[in-house]
Amino acid sequence: MSKREAFLEAACREKVEDFLRFIALHKNKAEPFDVKEVVEEMPREQREALWGRLESLLREILLELPPDRWEEEAMQQEAAPDPKHVRAVVDGVALVAAVSLKVLQDGNSYSALLDIGHRLHDVLVSLPESEASLQLHLQELFEAWWKMGLLGREKFGRTAFLLSLQKSFILKKPGAEIQRLWSLHNVLTVLDYTSEDNKQIIDLLLQCFHRPSHIRSDDGKRFLVFLFSWNVDFIRVIHGSVKNQLEFYPRTMTTHIAEIYFRAWKKASGDFLETIESSCIQDFMQNAIFLLRTSPVHCKVRQIVSYFHSRKGCHRVDKMLYNLYRPILWKSLSVPNFEVRANATLLFTEAFPVHDPDLSNTNVERDITKQLETAMGLLDDPHPTVRSNATLGVCKILAKCWELLPPAVITDLLKKLVVELAADSSSSDVRCAVFKSLTIVLDNPLSHPLLEKLLPTLKYSLHDTSERVRTAFLDLLIKVKAVRAAKFWDVCSMDHLLARLAIDSHSASKRIVGLLFKSFFPVNEPEREWCCRCIILIQMNPMAARKFYQFAHEHTAATNIIKLMLAIRRSLNSCIQVNHDLTDINDSNKENSTLEGPVLPEMAVVSSLLEVVVILWRSVEKALKQNQEAHKYTVTKFGNVMAKYFQAFEDQRSTVPLIQLASFMPPTAVPTFSRGVLSRLRRMDPEAPPAQFSQLLDCICSWGQEADILELVSDWLGKSTPKQGDKAAKSRAVRIQEPVEAKPDLALAYLEYLFSHSFTREKVLALDGGRLKQLLTLLGNWKSVLYDHLRSSTEDPNGPEVETALKAFEYHGRLSAHLQHNSTEGRDYLLSLERVAEWVGDKVLPFLAKRRSDEDGGGERSEKSQQLARRITEGFLTVCRDVVLVGLGDETFKSQILYLCSLILISEAGYMCIPAVLALLKEVANSSVPDDDIQDQESHEDSSTVILGGVANIFQKIIELLASRLRKEPEEGQLLCQSAVPGLSDFLQVVQTWDAALLSGVYSTVFAVLIVEKRHLLQKLTQTEEVFIPQSVDEMPPLSSVLLSVILKSPSVTRSFLAEVSSSLASGDLSSLTELAAVLHVLAVIKQTGKCIGGTKSAAVSVQKHLEKHAVSALGSNELQRVIYESSVKTLNELLHL
C-alpha cells in the first residue's frame, strides 16, 4: 500500500492513532514523510475523499469532547476522552487543511474542505486561552483562507483579524502580530461599520491609537493610516479618541501620531480627504490657536500642526495649509484675547508664507508683502507675550527665507529687534526672546555681515537686571563665536565681560568662562603662556580671575590644571629669587635656574596667584587622589617651597591661601607649619572671628589631628566649670609647663565651626566614643552654671558668663543629636536629652514666673531670672525641634517633649514660649503622620494617634493662652499673637495631612475661639449704630483677626476651616442669633478674599437653616436684636448669591 493510500485509510475514527502517527512523522524533521508531498501527489478524487473522511473524523471527535469542556475533563480522573488526544486530532486536521489550501487549484471542488473550515472555526471561537499553539495554527489557516479568496473568507477572515487584533494587545512583543494584522487589513473592507456585531472590533481598533507598539512600528503605522480610509464617520471617532489621549502621549509618540495623520491625509481623496482636512487638521489648527498655553494638550497640538508645517514646499501641502488657515488665522491675529493672538502668531510665522500656490508670482509676492507687514505689526503688539512670540517667529522667517526677502525688509526687521525690542523696558521676556531668537538667524551664514554691524549696539545687555536676559545674551555671544559671525569682543568688550564675571550668578559665570576660556587658558600654547595669561587676567580683574579658575576644570583635563598650578609655582619661585635671593629653593633639575615666568613685584598679584592655586587644587582634588603618582609629585613640588612662601609672603591676604594649600598636603610635607598650628589655636584671642581660626581647624582635621583640637576644647570647657576648684587648678598647673588660661568662649566657637561644616563634622564624629562622651559630659556640666545664674542675686565677676553657659547648653543638645545619629543601636543620647527635659521642668520652669517687685530689688532679680529661664527653655525646645525634624525622635522622645510643652504652658509666664512651642508642635505633627509603607501599620497608627491627640490638646491650650493674654494685657497680647503667626501658619498647614477626626478637633478649637470672641463683642453692643459687617480681617476682634489672617493664607486650610464651620452648624451646636451673626461675620470676611466660594456658600446654606428660626422672635425683640437679625439676613443673601 502506498503512502497516499495508507494516509487516506488512516483518516477515520477507527484508525485515528495511525493518523496521529503520520502527523508526528511529518513534524519530525528526521523522518522523510511529508504531508504536503502526499497531498500534492493525490489525485483530485482522492483529495476530496481525504477531506470527507477528515470532516467525519473531526465531527465525531468533537462530539465526544467539545472544546469548551477540555479544561473540565483535564481536571477529572474518570474514564473520559483525553483532551490531549482530541487536541492532537484537531491540530492534525488543521495541518492537512492548511496543506490542502496550498495545492488547491482553480475549479477544484472543496465543499468538504469548507465543512472542515467551519468546524475548525467553531473550535477556534471556543478555544480556551491556554491553547495558544493550536490557536496559532488555526489562525494561520484562516489567514491563508482569506488571502486565497475562497468561500467563507469573510467569516474566517474576520475571526483571524479579530484574534490577531486581540493578541497584539496581549503579547509582550507584538511585532509579528502587528505585521499579521497589517496583512489582514483588507478584511475591514467587507465589514459593515454600522453593524452592532462589529462594535467590539471598532473598540479594539480605537485602542490601537493608544498603544505605543502600534504607533511606533512601520506596519502599525500603515495599519493606522489605513483605518482613516475605512469609513468617513470612523475618522471623526478616531480623531476624538486621539484628542482624549493626547495629554498622556510623550513627545516622541506625538510625533508618530502627527506622521500618521499626515500620511492618512496624503493618501485620502474625496469625502475622506475633506473629512480629514475639516474635522482633523483644521480642528488641530483651531485648538492650537484657542487653547490656553497652560493646557497640557496645547503643546501636543502645536507639535502636530508643526509637523504639517515642516512638510511645506510641495504644492499640495501649501494649498491645503492656505485653504484651512484662511478662515481662522488672520482673524485670530487681531482678536482682543492676547493668548489667542500669541498662539496665532506662532502658527503664522511657522507656516510663513501662507500662500495659494495656484496664484501668479505677482499675486504671491503681494500676499507675502502683506504678511511681512503683519509680522512687523505683531512686533509692536501691546502684550509682551505676543511680542515675544513674534520675535521668535520673525527670526525663524529670516533664517529660512533670508535670500528670498528684500534687503530693506530684512534691515527693518533686524533693526526693530536689535534697537527697540532688545531694550524693551516693559518686559524682560521680550528682551530674552530677542537674544534667544537671534541665535536662530545666525544659523544662516548670509546674515553674518549685517549682524556684525548691528550686534555691537547690544553690548550693555550684558548688564541687564534680569539674569535670564543676561544668560540669553551670553548664549548669543557663544553662538557668534562658534559660527564666526563676528569677534565677540567687538560685540561686548573684555572689561565688561570680566566685570560681569566677577559678580554674576553661577549660570551666567559659567557661560562667560566658556566664552573666554581659550583666551586666558590657551591649551595649545606652552605652559609659560598659560601663567602669563593668568597674571594678565589677575591684573585686569582679580575677582573675575578667581571665578574664571573655579570653572576652568570643566573645560580642560585635570592634567592641564595641574600643569598650570606648577607653572604658577615656578613664577612664584622666580618672584622670591628676585626679591629675596632665595636661590636654595631651586630644584635639583635646575627648573628655576632661569626666570621661566614673569617677575611679580606686586604682592597683590602674588596673593591672587596663591588664591588661584588653591582654587585649581580644590577643583582637581578628587582626580589627584585617584592618581597617587600625580598627587605625590604635586605635593612634593609645593612642599619643597611652602616654608619659603610662609617667610616671603607674610601679609594677611597671602597667608590665607597658604594655609589652605597646607591643608591639602600631609603634615610631613609642611613640617614647620604643621607643628605650630595647634599652638596658634591655643594662643588664639578669645574674641577672634572665625576667619582667623577656620582654616587652621581645616588643616587640623585634614591632617587627622582632630583628636588634639577636641582635647583642647574639652580642657578649656572642663577648667571653666565651677567643679574645678583651686586645688585642682594647681595640680593641673604642675603638669603643664606653659599654663594657658581657659577660653570657654573660644572652645565653643571652635565647636560651632567643627559641627557646622560637613568635612570637619565627619572627622570629629569619627573619633572614638570615649572622647565624644567626655565632651558631652563637660557640656552637660554647664547646666549647673545656668542654675547658679538663675538663683543668684548678684553676678560673680570671676565666674563663667551666662552667654557662655547658654551656648554650652545648646551645644550639649546638638552634640547629643549628632551622637544619636551616629549610634548604630540604642537610644542613650535621646535619653540624655530626656534627662535635660526633666531638668528644665524641675529646675528652670519655677523661675518662669510672673515678675514681682519688692523693696530690696527682688523685682529686678526676678525679671532677670525669668528672661534667662525663657531663653533656656526656648533654646532647648529649638534643639528638640531639630531632633524631630531630622527624624531622630522616637515615640518615647516625642511623648516626653510634649509633656514638657504642657508643663511650660501651665507655668505662670509660659505664654512667652508659645512661638517656640508651636515650631516644635509642627515638627512633631509632621513626623507622626502614619506612613503607608510601614509594615506594622496598626500599632504605628495607634501610637501616632496618641501623639497627635496630645499635639491637638497642646494647640488648644495655646489658643486659650493667646485669648487670655489679650484680655489681661491687650498690648502684650497683640505682640504675642504677631510673634505666633508664622508658627500657627506652619502648624495648620501640616495638620492638613491628619485624618478627619483629629483635623476636626484642631479646627473646632479655632472656630470656637472665633465665635466666642465675636459673640462676646456683639453682646456688649448697646446702640444699633454699632452693628456693622466686617469687610476685612482688620475689622475683626484681635485674636480672630490673627487666626483668620493665618487661615486665609492657604486655600487648603481655608477649605478645611469652612468644612468645620458647616459641620458645627449641622450638629446644632450654634443656635443663638448672636452666634449665627458671628458665623456670618466670619464668612463675610472670607467672601471678600474671593477664595473657596463653594465652601463659603455651603456654610451659608447651613446658617440659613438656623437663621430662619429667629425670623419671628427677632421681630418681637428689642431694636438691637432686630438690627442684628436684619444685617445677618442681608449678609446671608450676599453670600448665597456669590
Automatic annotation (TrEMBL):
<dbReference type="GO" id="GO:0000796">
    <property type="term" value="C:condensin complex"/>
</dbReference>
<dbReference type="GO" id="GO:0005634">
    <property type="term" value="C:nucleus"/>
</dbReference>
<dbReference type="InterPro" id="IPR011989">
    <property type="entry name" value="ARM-like"/>
</dbReference>
<dbReference type="InterPro" id="IPR024741">
    <property type="entry name" value="Condensin2_G2"/>
</dbReference>
<protein>
    <submittedName>
        <fullName>Non-SMC condensin II complex, subunit G2</fullName>
    </submittedName>
</protein>
<dbReference type="Pfam" id="PF12422">
    <property type="entry name" value="Condensin2nSMC"/>
</dbReference>
<dbReference type="GO" id="GO:0000070">
    <property type="term" value="P:mitotic sister chromatid segregation"/>
</dbReference>
<dbReference type="InterPro" id="IPR016024">
    <property type="entry name" value="ARM-type_fold"/>
</dbReference>
